[in-house]
Write a structure and sequence with these properties.
The complex is a heterodimer of chains A (about 300) and B (about 650). Chain A has helices spanning about 1-25, 40-55, 80-90, 105-110, 120-130, 145-160, 175-185, 205-215, 225-230, 240-255, 275-280, 290-295; strands spanning about 30-35, 60-65, 75-80, 95-100, 115, 140-145, 165-170, 190, 220, 235, 260-265, 270-275, 295-299. Chain A is built from twelve helices and 13 strands. Chain A has a six-stranded parallel beta sheet with strand order 2-1-3-4-5-11, with helices on both faces. Chain A is elongated, with a radius of gyration of 21 Å. Chain B is about 10% helix and about 55% strand. In chain B, a hairpin with a 3-residue loop joins strand 17 and strand 18 (about 350-370). Classes of the chains: A alpha/beta (about 300), B mainly beta (about 650). At the A-B interface, helix 7, helix 8, helix 9 and helix 11 of A face helix 2 and strand 15 of B.
């Protein structure tokens, strides 16, 4: 039934978009901007190309590298926050749709930029944490007050509703991390990572992962890369599906519809990744149903 | 000094030339935290975390490595590290660091900490590093070896290095664990441990261990005479040890306690005792109870404090034939208490300031020497110690860190000492360069100041601290995802070194600040972590140490090569741990050299990641290499032959 509803929705959307797009300029050009080359970006690009071709068949999608300096497209699609900056420098008067970004703040600086922010809901993160680690009551969250204070307050409230306690440990600079981790060891049974660039950067990642591993304090990581490196689990995204969501928004913009400043991306499926090797070394038991339901299991 | 300035100058040029091209890096973006390539904690990483950031050359041995290489005691584990060596005179094990392995030094120039608690006692500054170590090797989570002077943070005895032993927590045991092993020379060892982390945040660890060994019947050619059993010491090599460890964590509080007592017979007839008399033995004991508190204060300051009470006791029974046959007893007993407080806070986003104070007071420092005829020494001396330190870890830029530290120590029985450390650290993604200057001291201990026995040794009473200055350049390079290279070059100068000299006026021995030592060397270590499961390291160390007259010191090997390899799973869940250690001969007191040696140790164990039962079998000195280490001044023997091939079988079960 869900499948039928979903199919009907897609058909309706396509019908609406095709109708709307018939009012839009023909043979529109969409320029994509990326500043990184990894699997996630490539998957998202694939989703964008596939879906945009379905929604607005006569649109050409080209990379910024293949466009001339004076060529102005109808829309620019960026993947990643650095790509927004690159696009903004080149296309200051063209609508820009930012995809694969973690922080909506970057969009506020520019009038012609809107975007889709990747963010799992707080409730969803806590419920998954409870499902994977049912015995944990005190969840430690490392955060920088300047970036994530509001989010932490939401976490604390949401946790209280489901009988959990958030151990908030502020980290103002990376130099404070050793002391913060000591506080986590004293007061928390697990760490839930949130996308805060002061806490989780290339410089701090190893330290946090090794702390978790050596002190047997499981870490709910930020992505597949974190789980592969030793975090216990992470909620994941289907990057092709994210690209498709982007394409749908792009189609609306091309049809002349207005978009909110930023939207939160939705994940239609519960995708998560588990590291059983970490579970084993931390002497944690992961239920068979959780293992079977995981989108990927590291063993 | 000119040499040192030259070294620094060249090092800075080296840093600039090698470092500059790596300064230019692409801008990071937020989403990198999802996608960047992270090193796995399973394969990374003796060199991650503390090692790259530390203002020193640091090596780490993990619990997994202890288990898989089959290390039976702390000395065996430490011996696997580049630049470290050990000596064994069948009574004590002595650690040598970077070309310094001073005879008669009971490890007083290396500071040993257990979970940050000072283990060097307060009469001889000694630490037992073999079977009498205060922590059963199975209860160690990690051993960190910081090479070089570190008095700017740790005070006295952090002279050649600091060994920080981190013990397991309740969660590491998670239930009841039983362990039993047996080995060559009728050796038996058992352990029972209980550990748990409860839902109310209370974490408990309790562990008791016992060890006994009959030892070998040892032959010494120097005593090969029918009157001395043809040179064979029978039943004179045994040892026995009992130890306890307890830890209780709740919130920010940690209550920990440890106890050990180790008795070891002396088969070598040292100090002129009767050969082949099993009544000559030493008993060493050590215990402590420590209450610690850690908290993160409002505003991000990290406060830790501790209060402790420690005990040490020693009983040496030496059997002489005056005549008549008499037991000469040398005893020492001490207890002391102390407190420490440390505060760490980040200022101006880039200065991580650590400051602390330490106070220690000896309640009893008793040394007694007697036999049935007389008491030759019976004194109780007191001492108060306090130290203050300040350290700034200054993050100058993304790549540069400057680490500045200084500590002041005041000893009531000797002069005060101030010791700085300056470390410039440059880090890029794959490269770390460190240029270090540091100094350290060791205060004269109660034994060096006050021991006398009216027969051969008299008390010095006034001595100065000995000191060391060190310059070092370290280069750490991640060559690939599986290869990491660490090289270091260093120069150490020791002044006012405390040694026993003979007073020409009366022929008595007395401690004096007379020796000077210059040592230099370099170390090269390649750490390997292949994704197929092979891991290990290969290292080469060159070291040279000379006294003030330019003569090479005794008891160190100039060249050492070490190979350590751990296999992936082979043949139905079995794992191999292989060690190969080569070292040059060492100069003896007689001026000759011991033979060079190649030792091979092999341990086979089953896969133990979570299995309840762990089995292992180790063969030590696999090829039965015949080798000797030098005898010291108290021995008749110029060289002391070491064990040939030995074995150990071990089983551990977790309920």
């Amino acid at each position: 039934m869900t499948h039928i509803n979903s199919s009907i929705s897609v058909l309706l959307l396509r019908a609406v978009l095709c109708f709307s797009y018939s009012l839009a300029p023909q043979a529109a050009t969409v320029v994509t901007v990326t500043t990184q080359n990894n699997n996630a970006v490539n998957q998202a690009l694939k989703g964008i190309r596939n879906k945009l071709a379905q929604f607005v068949p006569n649109t050409s999608v080209v990379s910024i590298d293949d466009t001339s300096a004076n060529q102005l497209p109808e829309l620019v699609l960026t993947l990643g926050s650095n790509a927004v900056k690159v696009a903004r420098e080149r296309f200051s008067n063209v609508p820009i749709l930012a995809c694969l970004i973690l922080d909506g703040e970057i969009l506020n600086a520019y009038a012609n930029v809107s975007g889709i922010v990747m963010r799992h809901s707080i409730e969803k993160q806590l419920l998954w944490h409870q499902r994977v680690l049912p015995n944990v009551k005190n969840i430690g969250i490392l955060y920088s007050p300047q970036n994530s204070q509001q989010q932490l307050d939401f976490f604390a409230k949401a946790a209280e509703h489901i009988g959990l306690n958030i151990v908030k440990v502020p980290v103002n600079t990376a130099l404070e991390l050793p002391s913060a981790l000591k506080a986590i060891k004293r007061n928390a049974e697990s760490i839930l990572a949130i996308p805060d660039p002061i806490v989780y950067s290339g410089k701090t990642a190893k330290g946090v992962l090794l702390f978790s591993f050596r002190n047997k304090i499981p870490l709910a990581g930020l992505s597949r890369a974190w789980v592969k490196a030793g975090a216990l689990y992470a909620l994941d995204w289907d990057y092709q599906q994210l690209g498709e969501q982007c394409a749908a928004e792009a189609a609306k913009l091309l049809a002349g519809q207005k978009m909110e400043k930023f939207k939160t991306a939705t994940s239609e499926m519960n995708r998560y990744i588990i590291n059983l090797r970490t579970a084993k070394s931390m002497k944690l038991t992961i239920g068979q149903s959780l293992i079977e339901g995981a989108s990927y299991v590291f063993e | 000094m000119a040499v040192n300035l030259k070294l620094i100058g060249r090092s800075l040029i080296f840093v600039a030339v090698i470092g500059f091209p790596m300064l230019v890096q692409g801008e990071q973006e937020d989403e990198d935290m999802l996608f960047f390539d992270l090193p796995s904690v399973f394969t990374a990483s003796k060199y991650e975390q503390k090692i790259s950031d530390a203002p020193a050359r640091v090596s780490v041995i993990t619990a997994k490595e202890i288990q898989r290489y089959g290390y039976r005691n702390l000395a065996e584990a430490l011996r696997s590290m580049p630049g470290l060596q050990s000596s064994y005179d069948h009574s004590y094990s002595y650690l040598g660091v970077r070309g310094l392995n001073i005879p008669g030094d009971f490890n007083s120039r290396v500071l040993v900490l257990v979970d940050g608690h000072r283990i060097n006692e307060n009469i001889y500054d000694s630490v037992v590093v073999d079977y009498g170590n205060i922590v059963d090797i199975d209860m160690i989570k990690q051993i960190e070896m910081i090479r070089g002077p570190a008095s700017s943070l740790y005070g006295s005895s952090a002279f050649l290095g600091v060994i920080n032993i981190i013990t397991k927590d309740g969660r590491d045991i998670n239930g009841i664990q039983l362990s039993a092993d047996t080995g060559s020379h009728d050796t038996y060892q058992g352990r029972i441990s209980y550990g748990k982390q409860y839902d109310n945040d209370l974490e408990v660890l309790l562990s008791a261990s016992s060890y006994s060994s009959e030892g070998a019947d040892r032959y010494f050619a120097e005593f090969d005479d029918p009157a001395t059993n043809n040179g064979v010491a029978v039943d004179a090599d045994g040892g026995k040890n009992d130890s306890l460890l307890a830890k209780l964590n709740y919130g920010g509080f940690t209550l920990s306690a440890a106890y050990t007592e180790y008795a070891k017979k002396i088969p070598t007839a040292s100090y002129g005792t009767i050969f082949n008399d099993s009544r000559s033995l030493t008993t060493k004991g050590r215990s402590y109870i420590n209450l610690g508190y850690d908290t993160l204060l409002e505003g991000g300051a990290d406060l830790s404090a501790k209060l402790y009470y420690d005990e040490y006791w020693y009983d040496g029974d030496f059997v002489y034939n005056y005549p008549p046959v008499t037991k000469y007893i040398d005893t020492a007993a001490s207890h002391w208490w102390g407190l420490e407080a440390q505060l760490t806070k980040v200022f101006f986003d880039s200065h991580r300031i650590t400051t602390g104070l330490e106070y220690r007071k000896n309640l009893k420092t008793e040394q007694k020497v007697y036999d049935v005829f007389d008491t030759y020494l019976d004194i109780d001396t007191n001492e108060k110690v306090y130290g203050l330190y300040l350290q700034d870890e200054w993050q100058i830029s993304e790549h540069w860190t400057l680490n500045l530290g200084v500590r002041f120590d005041d000893y009531s029985q000797s002069k005060s000492s101030i010791n700085p450390r300056i470390a410039g650290i440059w880090q890029a993604k794959q490269t770390t360069l460190k240029l270090l200057y540091s100094s350290a001291f060791r205060a004269p201990n109660a034994y060096e100041l006050f021991y006398e026995n009216t027969i051969a040794q008299k008390a010095a009473r006034m001595l100065e601290p000995e000191s060391i200055e060190s310059y070092e350049l370290i280069w750490e390079q991640q060559l690939s995802s599986s290869l990491h290279l660490i090289t270091s070059v260093y120069h150490n100068s020791i002044e006012d070194m405390l040694i026993l000299v003979t007073d020409p006026d009366d022929g008595f021995e007395i401690f004096d600040n007379t020796a000077e030592v210059e040592s230099e060397g370099f170390e090269l270590e390649l750490l390997v972590n292949f994704s197929e499961g092979w891991s290990g390291s290969a290292s080469y160390a060159y070291q040279k140490s000379q006294d003030g007259y330019g003569a090479n010191l005794v008891n160190y090997a100039q060249n050492m090569f070490k190979l350590n390899a751990l296999s992936p799973l082979i043949a139905d869940n079995f794992l191999l741990g292989l060690e190969l250690q080569y070292e040059d001969g060492r100069k003896t007191f007689a001026g000759s050299d011991t033979d060079s040696q190649i030792l091979t140790n092999l341990t086979v164990s089953n896969n133990t990641m979570a299995d309840e039962l762990t089995l292992s079998a180790g063969i030590y000195n696999l090829f039965d290499e015949t080798y000797s280490q030098l005898g010291f001044q108290e021995h008749v023997q110029n060289m002391l032959e070491q064990n040939g091939r030995t074995f150990r079988l071990k089983a551990t079960y977790r309920f």
